[in-house]
Design a protein that fits this description.
The chain has 246 residues and is an alpha/beta fold. It contains ten helices and eight strands. α6 crosses α7. The N and C termini lie close together (8 Å). The site of cytidine-5'-monophosphate has 15 residues, from β8 and α9. Cytidine-5'-monophosphate binds next to β8 and α9.
Length: 246
């Protein structure tokens, strides 16, 4: 373990969020990218439009794909969806921790049934768009930070591989949960980049130093004048922190 407490990770740390409406736009970006430099994230909109065929194209080009569909349903249904994701050959899939222990355990079992190629299974704790008021509306009388910790602990107990969290939550989650869980963090903005609609942002270097395992990066790469150069800069910044911490 490094002095900066940076857990080891195999392969690229950047997961480029393919937030496009059309498969052809996603693919024309992907044509410029190299699977040794990034992984890819496919979310609800693109998946509903382009489906498993697009995911197969991406994996066929050598990319590891995070299928970000945030499953939340009865355990049997979530297990079926996770099994289908595993069979599709994705690298990572996720569920909502608020679906509870039985749902997460069913997801774990389903994912594991894929054997050696089983995807990583992570949980969303509290959506970053949710405030304490949203939690209260839905019957959880607690603050967001406490709910994040509670759900992160629950997902670790249920055997999940990690959680999606803001990079700013990563330090506390590392303190509480240790080095084992994967922390997958959106809200990344290189110095000087537009923050867009993200409020709680960290630079790539700060996110890695805070204990993030993987950085989900959308617009700073997808909307860059030169996405390849933007990704190279982010990877260079990450590499510098990892070298300093080694
Ligand atoms: O463009 P940007 O870098 O803000 O994209 C971030 C990606 O991470 C988007 O796909 C967004 O949906 C996702 N995400 C997020 N905040 C979360 C969970 C996911 O921004 N809490």
């Amino acid at each position: 373990m490094s002095e900066l407490n940076i857990p080891a990770v195999r392969g690229p740390r950047v997961v480029v969020a393919l937030d496009f409406q059309e498969a052809r736009d996603a693919l024309s970006l992907v044509d410029q990218l190299d699977p040794t430099q990034c992984r890819l994230k496919v979310g609800k909109e693109l998946f509903v439009r382009a489906g498993p065929a697009l995911v197969e194209k991406l994996t066929g080009r050598g990319f590891e794909v995070f299928l970000d569909l945030k499953f939340h349903d009865i355990p049997n249904t979530v297990a079926g969806a996770c099994r289908a994701a595993a069979q599709l050959g994705v690298w990572m899939v996720n569920v909502h921790a608020s679906g509870g222990r039985a749902m997460m355990e069913a997801a774990r079992e389903a994912v594991d049934s894929a054997g050696a190629s089983s995807p990583l299974l992570i949980a969303v704790t509290v959506l970053t768009s949710s405030s304490s008021q949203v939690l209260a509306e839905t019957g959880a009388d607690t603050d967001v930070g406490r709910q994040v910790l509670r759900l992160a602990r629950l997902s670790a107990d249920a055997g999940l591989d990690g959680v999606v969290c803001s990079a700013q939550e990563a330090v506390e989650l590392r303190e509480v949960l240790g080095q084992a869980p994967l922390l997958v963090t959106p809200g990344i903005r290189p110095a000087g980049a537009e923050s867009g609609d993200q409020h709680r942002i960290l630079t790539p270097a700060a996110a890695i130093a805070a204990g993030s395992s993987f950085l989900v990066v959308g617009r700073p790469v997808t909307r860059a004048q030169d996405p390849v150069v933007a990704l190279e800069q982010i990877n260079r910044e990450i590499g510098q922190v990892l070298t300093a911490g080694a």
